[in-house]
Amino acid sequence: MTFNYASVASGSCGNCHYVGSDGGSILIDAGLSGKRIENNLQSIGKDIKDVMAIFITHEHVDHIKGAGILSRRYDIPIYANEKTWISMKDKMGKMSENNVRLFENEKGVGIGDFRVKPFKIHHDAADPVGYSICSGDKKISIATDTGHICQDMKKELHGSSLVVLESNHDVEMLKMGSYPYHLKRRILSQSGHLSNDDAAMFCVELAKEGVENILLAHLSRENNFPELAYQTAIGTLKMNGLDESVNIRVLKRQEASPVHSI
């Protein structure tokens, strides 16, 4: 059985992740226009009509922008926890009650070939989550929009075949940049976004745990650039003698990634 991941887009302007198998596919977030999500999926040979569900991490617009229109157009259920749904429902447009699916954090949801488990992350939203998606003995995990990685998150991410990990900003670029002070404080806080340095250090831990594929995600357009995120991660892995044990890639902000099969 195939088990695939692709980024539909990942960055401050919109986020959407594709996870697929022989039995269908799901999206984690839909933070682009519905049309762009359709087009980006088509660019990697995937069809929105095969999507069985959209799982939402949190209610910020760069994670939900296209969810409502895709749900209405293709009759796709949207999964979220209760606090997130309450915070996002007014932004979704008219929704079929049958397509609103609420879950409890830490409890898995079975759909198609997948077991999808939401777990708590640390971001300034109502009740944000990351996801681990299991199919057979393989696991893909997605952890973005988190100010730090706690022990409970580490337990969820360990054992993954592929991890999508936030590497949002370079701290010095952020401090010296044009953002207002209050926004800089928010991003740097424990409920903000993960820096390149923090992501790189966690890459070391993941590599030691046997994770073979790490995809750096949600890069800031203003306070980061792909080569810097990559070099920070690979340099830290090299200093720990681990650069040859893990495949590091950086996801693009506007374009779909290649399909990764595990």
From TrEMBL:
Q: Note the InterPro entries from the entry.
A: Metallo-B-lactamas (IPR001279), RibonucZ/Hydroxyglut_hydro (IPR036866), WalJ/YycJ-like (IPR052533)
Domain of life, per UniProt, equals Bacteria
- Describe the location of the Metallo-beta-lactamase domain by residue ranges: 13-182
Pfam families documented for this protein? Lactamase_B (PF00753)
Query: Could you identify this protein by its name?
Result: Metallo-beta-lactamase superfamily protein
Organism (species): Peptoclostridium litorale DSM 5388
